[in-house]
Amino acid sequence: GMMVTPHSAPCKRCTCQNGVLSCSEPRCDCSVPGSERNRCCPQCDPRAACKHQELRHVVFRSGERWIYQCQTCECLFGEVDCWPMECPPTSCADPLLAPGDCCPRCHNDPCALEPSNTTTASG
Length: 123
Description:
- The chain has a three-stranded antiparallel β-sheet with strand order 1-2-3, with no helix packed on it.
- 7% of the residues are buried.
- Among the domains are: 1-44, no CATH class; 47-86, Complement Module, domain 1 (Ribbon), CATH 2.10.70.
- The N and C termini lie far apart (67 Å).
- The model is unreliable at 116-123 (pLDDT under 50).
- The chain is an all-beta fold.
- The protein is built from no helices and eight strands.
- A hairpin with a 2-residue loop joins β2 (13-17) and β3.
- It comes from Graphocephala atropunctata.
């Protein structure tokens, strides 16, 4: 039940139980005051944050992801890295790409942006 910290990984917390060593990474809660100075939580350092490409007041912490112009973007220690977002496969022969949508969809897709012109009578 003894708590140890390996020299090779000073941020890991390890416990020895019945001769078995089990280790865990620290949990980093960047909302806790002082966490930005914790060397084990570099993602909490404000210098590691990234600003949104257009909405400059929106700030992402290192490791956070968002969608921008049909790309998946990630903040990696102050740098924004983006790549084409993956679209789910479509089950129809003629998927359509609606204006403002990133992925082609089937006309009967409930997630399609455009409301369908068909109405269903109930009763």
